[in-house]
Amino acid sequence: MIRQRDSQTEGQEFGIPMEHPPQEPAPQVSLDTAVTLSFDYLKQLGTIAMTAAAGLIALVQFVDGDKKFFIKIMVAAALMFLSALMAFFVQFSLMDRIRQGHELLRTRERVGYSQKGAKRIEGIFEGAALWLLSISMGIAFHALISAGMPA
Are residues 62 and 150 in contact, defined by beta-carbon separation less than 8 angstroms? Predict the structure, then answer.
């Protein structure tokens, strides 16, 4: 027969009392601070993606004749733009959720509006934006590294 152990009896069989160190309380952040940090994070994600895409497009002007390089850089720039667009959609959804939660900011009543559904979509779009940004940066680095190498 298999005996299950729990954390309090695990050390007691050897005569060692099991005391857990006291946990420090997690610092609480106000709702205003959390919203501000979330919005700024999403704004920075979009800004980084758009800046990198613009830099890649500017870089293409200096490389003539390498069609593979041009295609890779344009694909990377397009994915970065899409990443920034998704980050903007998450910002919009976040602001809309905040407005729906406050009587003063609410623009109109929505039938069937779900905070849970909006949060789920925000999470999906935020994850997709990060993935797209990461993939596009990988494509761009590959294009930059392989630009000077013989085919």
Answer: no
Structure tokens at 27: 């610092």
Provide the residue type at 7 as one letter: S
Residue 151 carries which DSSP code? -
Q: Hey, what's the torsion of the CAs at 97, 40, 59, 127, to 10 degrees?
A: -50
Q: How far apart are CA 32 and CA 96, in angstroms?
A: 15
């758009």: which residue's tokens? 50
d(CA 130, CA 44): 12
Model pTM? 0.68
Question: What pLDDT sits at residue 104?
Answer: 64
CB-count exposure of residue 35 (10 Å: 0-12, 13-18, 19+): middle
